[in-house]
Amino acid sequence: MRQCRVDAAAKNIMTENPLSIGNLRCGRGQPLLIVAGPCVIETEELTLSIAEELKRIAADLDLQLVFKASFDKANRTSVAAFRGPGLEKGLAILRRVKESTGLPVTTDVHEPNQAAAVGRTCDLVQIPAFLARQTDLLLAAAATGRPVHVKKGQFLAPWDMKHVVDKLVSGGCRRVLLGERGTFFGYGRLVNDMRSIVQMQALGAPVIFDATHSVQEPGGLGAATGGNREMVEPLARAAVAVGADGLFFETHPDPDAAPSDGPNMVPLDQFPGLLRRLLAIRRAVENIESQGAEN
Fold first, then answer.
1. Quick count: other Cβ atoms within 10 Å of Cβ 12?
2. Most buried among 44, 171, 178, 192, using CB within 10 Å?
3. Can you give the pTM of this predicted structure?
4. What do you get for the CA distance between the two ends of the chain, in Å?
C-alpha cells in the first residue's frame, strides 16, 4: 500500500533496528524476542515464582525473554475489577524480579507522571493500545531514555503508527517497538491482519505480535473481558511465519483463577511446549530466508 512506503535511509535515521533492551537485542537479524508474564501483579510471591519459571524456560530453550507484569490495570471493564498493587509497590516487586532472576522487565504506563519512575526500574516501557495516540504519554515515555513498546490501537491502521514513531523520535527515543494486537471487528471481537506486521516493519521498527491480547473478546463476560486462549497458538504460528521480530504472551499457573485476562492467558505449564513449536517455525523461516539470499 502507498501509505506504507518509507524511504530506507530516512527510517534508518529515525529508529534503531536492531535495538537493545537491557542485555537483549531485537530486530533485524536477531533471535526471536519473547515478552511474557502475568497480566497483573497479584502478590510478590506469585510474581517471583512465575518469573523464576520463565527464567528456567528461557535458559532451557536458549531464548531472549523480557518479564512483563502490570502494576495497575487502569483499563478494566468494571470499576469493581482488581487493578493491582499500584505504582510504588508494583515497581518494588519488579525490582525484586530483576534482582532475583536477572531478566529485563517491562510494565504498562497509563499516565505521563508514571513514566519517570517506571523508566528508573524497567528496561522497556510499554504503552497500552488504547493510549497509543496520547502525545503527552508518548513524550514522557521517550524522556525516560528507555526503549518504548507501543501497541497499535485496535482502532488504528498499521501505517498510522508512523505518527507514533514520529512522536517518540521527536522526544528523543529511537529505540521503538511496535505491537500488533488485533483490530476491532464489530462489537466484542478482534481480528488479526497479518499484513500489519510487515506494514509496521516498513516503518523501520521491530514488531512484536501480542498473541494473548489478540484473542480477547472485549466485554465478552459482561463486566469483564472474555477471550479464547485456544486461538493463541494458531495466531502466534502465523505471526512467526510472517516474520514478527518478537512475541508477547501473558501466562499464569492457573489462568481461570487469575483476576485479569484469565480467558486469554496461556497456562504456565503449557508455555514451554508452545515456545518449542514456535521456535521450530522460526528456524524454518530463517532457513527459507537464507536459501533465498543465496539464490
1. 12
2. 178
3. 0.92
4. 27
